[in-house]
Design goal:
Strand content: 15-25%
Largest sheet: 6 strands, mixed
Number of strands: 21
Number of helices: 21
Distance between the termini: 67 Å
Radius of gyration: 34 Å
Helix content: 25-40%
Length: about 650
């Protein structure tokens, strides 16, 4: 049989010439056989292959290093890192890095906008001084009217001292907070001198305090000096404080007697509301009376001109302390809704997973919507995994509690899912709006690019991991869809707590991350951890790294904080729970989040604790990690340390 088949398939000679038709037929059969074999081999491999968790293999090595670097959680027994967001991503790629800060802030990074110095305030004040005040001081003439000189005749003597004249001074006269330029300069100088570890970028006009004639409230925008010249972090902060003033009884000049605590000057807090209609994008009212040095204004004008010339949009400024406008976007009219193009993800395996897992998939959806030039229809109800809740059960939470929705809706086109379905129900049939439906993750964004339907709906099944949103951005899509990290920032309400904690330590503190808990008890995987994180060992390790008497912020999962009492004799130790008044029932955070949740009280949950604890730790002038600085043990157990360590 085989011999006959071979003979039948071989090309024959006819009249001394090769039968080309038979040769082509034989070649085609051979190629088809190879194709069938390749398909069978591929099918077999696909059947037995188990894909890796996409979270463990991000798009690039640089992104992998970024997401897995730095600090791990200091709140839970499991050592799971908090996923950084857009404002941290820019900082992590700066050339300065943390090393500059640890080297005594010697490597200065040129800033896009210069900060305000004492000399700037003085030079601005001198511009308003009359020419007569700048003249050389004259010799003072003191008149002695002592009755002991006889009949009271005046005896004139010449001295080289300033003129001292009898001044009629009403020490209780109200101060003019808003109109006195000299007072404005005094308050600015006092702030700069009082907080040497901060860089100031803008001062608001002072505001009078009702019922307190000798007090003024003053606001300013600032950055820690360590951020500006060490880490490259681009976050700005806003503070407003109350200044208590007195008058010198001899000269009647105003003197700053004391400065209030963080955010004590509530009169200077601007609400930052927008002019536009509710939910519509609009510009903030420009502060026309703020103090900005001339050189700073020149730099701002240059940056604006360069952006306009290049057709670029100015980088958004992340300012912690400004009022948050995270109202839901609203479509203005039926015609505007009908002209729009939308993308929605339904279902998916991200629900109730870790917050990191959710963000990884959400950014994929946001990236696809951006690629397709469509509005992302997003569900603002986030399922918080039970590991983060006090009940231990999965609970629905508002997306805006964890992320800066105001920045997201200004940077990307998004709409709330409930609002979208309400509008869709009103106008879909009337305006004959169509939707395109797909359940196949192999339907790539490139294939959807030409879809003209109003709505593209991706439905994800129940089989993991193929129902992960992040699978859409894998394979050939990986080089096309870019996750827009810069659209996603941490909640400014949480960052406000970070700012308040840092301010209470005057932004001049060191930090240490101490992992204990189950790892310290497992001597097989971590044989040295318990001993290396004992108070005695900590004192020895910190001795040549942290100066005595300094604030030391301790991020730890050790439940018994008295464990660290031996450190109190040398350092001013602080823990996250030392500042729990910042999220207590009478706090600004509690009030705002309750209003955001329609009158329902919000728990300061485990993920919030991890986020705040980590952010405060990272703002220490010197921060020490457990597995890099305190112990020789490996983070994931024996024999798991990187080869380079």
């Amino acid at each position: 049989m085989l011999g006959r088949a071979a003979g039948m398939s071989a090309p024959r000679w006819r009249g001394g010439s090769l039968d080309l038709r038979a040769a082509l037929r034989s070649g085609g059969n051979l190629l088809f056989a190879l194709f069938v074999a390749a398909v069978l081999a591929f099918t077999l491999l696909a059947a037995v292959h188990s894909p890796d968790d996409p979270l463990l293999h991000p798009s690039s090595h640089q992104l992998t290093d970024f997401l897995t670097s730095s600090t791990s959680t200091s709140t839970f027994l499991t050592d799971d890192s908090v996923l950084r967001t857009g404002e941290d991503f820019n900082a992590s790629t700066s050339s300065g890095g943390i090393g500059a800060a640890e080297a005594g802030f010697e490597a200065e990074i040129k800033e896009a906008v210069p900060f305000i110095k004492l000399s700037d305030v003085a030079s601005e004040a001198e511009k308003t001084e009359p020419a007569a005040e700048k003249a050389e001081p004259e010799l003072a003439v003191t008149v002695d009217t002592d009755v002991g000189t006889g009949d009271g005749a005046a005896v004139a003597t010449t001295e080289e001292t300033p003129v001292t004249e009898a001044v009629s001074c009403d020490t209780e006269a109200p101060v003019d907070c808003t109109g006195d330029r000299d007072l404005f300069n005094l308050l600015m100088r006092s702030a700069i001198e009082r907080f040497p570890d901060l860089h100031f970028y803008r001062f608001g006009r002072p505001v009078a305090v009702p019922g307190s004639p000798m007090e003024c409230d003053l606001a300013w925008r600032f950055r820690p000096a360590a951020d500006a010249i060490g880490t490259g972090r681009t976050t700005y902060y806003k503070d407003y404080r109350r200044f208590m003033l007195t008058r010198d009884v001899n000269t009647c000049t105003l003197v700053v007697d004391s400065v209030g605590e963080y955010h004590s000057g509530v009169g200077a807090k601007r609400n930052g509301k927008r002019k536009g209609k509710k939910g519509k994008k609009g510009k903030r009212e420009a502060p026309v009376t703020d103090f900005v040095p001339a050189k700073t204004q020149v730099r701002l004008d240059e940056n604006t001109a360069n952006n306009e010339a290049a057709g670029a949009v100015a980088e958004p400024v992340f300012v912690v302390g400004e009022a948050v406008n995270d109202s839901l976007p609203v479509v203005a009219s039926e015609s505007e809704f009908s002209r729009g193009k939308y993308l929605i993800y339904m279902g998916g395996g991200e629900r109730c997973k870790s917050m990191n897992h959710f963000i990884w998939g959400f950014l994929c959806a946001l990236g696809e919507a951006q690629f397709l030039n469509r509005t992302l229809v997003m569900d603002l109800n986030v399922c918080l995994n039970g590991r983060y809740t006090s009940s231990g059960k999965d609970e629905d939470r508002d997306f805006r509690l964890y992320f800066d929705f105001e920045h997201l809706k200004e940077s990307a086109s998004v709409i709330d899912q409930s609002q979208f379905w309400q509008d869709w129900g009103k106008w879909q049939k009337k305006d004959r709006l169509k939707n395109f439906y797909t359940e196949d993750i192999r339907m790539t964004p490139m294939k959807l690019k030409d879809i003209k339907d109003t709505l593209i709906m991706r439905k994800f099944g129940n089989v993991e991991p193929d129902n992960y949103w992040s699978r859409v951005c894998e394979g050939q899509t990986e080089g096309v869809i870019k996750r827009p990290w810069h659209f996603l920032w941490k909640s400014r309400r949480l960052m406000e707590i970070v700012s308040a904690i840092s301010s209470r330590m005057n932004w001049d503190f060191d930090s240490v991350h101490v992992v204990r808990g189950e790892k310290a008890q497992n001597t097989q995987l971590w044989p040295n951890l318990d001993r290396d994180t004992s108070p005695e060992s900590l004192l020895m390790t910190l001795n040549d790294k942290v100066g005595a008497g300094r604030y030391l912020y301790i991020a730890t999962n050790e439940p018994d904080k008295s464990f660290f009492d031996p450190l109190n004799g040398k350092y001013k130790t602080r823990f996250l729970d030392d500042f729990n008044d910042l999220w207590a029932e009478n706090s600004e955070w509690f009030t705002e989040t309750k209003e955001l949740s329609n009158g329902k009280s919000v728990e300061f949950d485990g993920y919030m604790r991890v986020a705040v604890d980590t952010e405060v730790f990272l703002r220490g002038k010197r921060h020490l990690e457990t597995f890099n600085d305190l112990t020789r043990d490996c983070k994931d157990g024996v024999n798991t340390c990187p080869a380079s360590s």
